[in-house]
Structure formats: structure tokens, C-alpha cells
User: Fold this.
Amino acid sequence: MRVLVTGSAGHLGEALVRVLREGGHDVVGLDLLTSPHTDVVASVTDRGAVRSAMAGVDAVVHTATLHKPHVTSHPRQEFVDTNVTGTLVLLEEAVAAGVAAFVHTSTTSAFGRALTPGEGSPAAWITEDVVPRPRNIYGVTKVAAEDLCELVARDSGLPCVVLRTSRFFPEQDDDEARRSGFADANLKVNELLYRRVDLADVVDAHLAAVRRAAEIGFGRYVVSATTPFGPGDLAELRRDAAAVVERLFPDYVDVYRELGWRMLPTIDRVYVNDRARADLRWTPRYDFRHALDLLRAGREPRSALATSIGAKGYHPETTGPYTTR
Assistant:
């Protein structure tokens, strides 16, 4: 299979290129930045470059984007150009080239204000049925790109799957209170309960989406680690998250005590991956239980793939918690 991967110099793009090539696939990596995993140095808005890169391609995995950390450093127009126009260029050229599967990497940030319940309300239960309420230009353009995927898929028959991925970046949290209140690894393992996913599982979800796209036709899916929580836990999660976690994982207390870690006092949303697991036939491995078992064994709670890719950052200069490229 010949696969075009956009954003091939980024976290997910590089991981996809590596795994696909290791699997014997022919991969074309496209990115604005040069890298060992980039074959075409160009913008996704460059129709000529995209058309050339699309030649003979069976599947497109579109990870290239301006991210949330770029909101303070890039004008809104650049978000529209890259995230919306660039996606449209790729979709149209994929249709023209007769591509068999198009997978678009979106984000749970698209849900925006829908992720924050009111004071005294239970934690939000976030499935694909929740209506997005974007809070910034990043979210607005990602939702617009998703809608373009649906439009083109419905009009042309291009099999297209949108994956709303939760956090998988290795950089420190951009929230000062969280960054100063928790060891970085502690916070990330906590987040596996409700809003984080390991890079290896994200790659597996994208590959599953490529395989299943033709049967699905068009679909949007939440991609996050499998939560141990259910709807009956949502009220208590807002009041006392640690009590819920201890009830479900009594051994977490000893593991955390030995590490000097602590649990979040409250959890405000829970991402639900049930539909992705069922429709994509996707089996994520790196959930909170798996992380606890690795920690108890004295091992790194992340996948080897996530560790080897490391941090890449989002800006050419130091910008707070986000590292440089």
C-alpha cells in the first residue's frame, strides 16, 4: 500500500511514517519542515505539490495542522489557510487521484466549551454525539475541516474517517497550576483516566481507520485511552476523583505513595472511545491499569514508540512550556 502522510515531521506524522515503513508500506511524507521522514517539503495548501505527492497513493493520513499552541503566535488567517484550505486541497486531490481511504486527524479540543460543565454539575460525558462549541480559532478550523471531510465524502464517495484525538503530546501542560502542582509523569498518567492517549495507540487507531474506511464511508470518532469510569461516576468525579479511582483501583494508592505522586482532586470531563473501538476494531493498550502495572514493575508508563519520538515542540523559539523544534 502506498500512503501519503502529511505532517511527517511532527509527533504523530513521524510515528505513522515509521510504523508504516516498518510494515513494508510505501510512504510519502509531506511537511513544511525537512526531516528524515519527509519526502516532499511543501505546504498542504500547495496544490501542485499535493497533486504530485498524491500520484499512485492508496490512502491519505492527514495529520498536518496548526495546533492550539500556535493560537498566540499565528494569525487566524494562517489557521484558516492551513487547517481549512489545506484540508480541502488534500480532499479534492484525493478524489481526483481515486484514493481509497482518507483519514483526518482532528482533536477533542473541537468540543471546546462543551467540555466544561457548570459549577456543581457532574463531569461531562464526551461522546461523538456532543455538539462542539469551539473556544478558539484552532477549534473552529478543526471543526470546519471535519465538516469539509463529511461534505466531500458524501458528495464524492471518498471513504473518509475523522479521528478526534485526545492529548498525546509529551510536552509539559500549558496550565501553570497543573504544571507546578504535579510531576509531569504523574499528571500524564492521571490523564489516562479521562483525557489522554498514548502515541502508539493513536497510530493504531489511524491504521485501523485506513483499513475500515471503505466500510464506514464517513465517520467521526473520539480516540482516547479507554476510561474506567461510567456515567454513574460523573457526579462524584467532580467532588472527589481520588475516591472514585481508589474504589476502582485500590492498588493505585500504594503505587502513588511510593512514587510521591497524587491524584487529581476533581475531573471535569471523560472522553469515551466506545464507538471507535467498535467501528474501527481498535484495541488501545495504554490505559490507566496498564500504566499502573508498568509503574509497579519499575518501567516507563509510555510506549516505546512515544519514548523514541520524544518532544518536538511547536515553535522555532522557546515559548513557555512548549519546547523548540
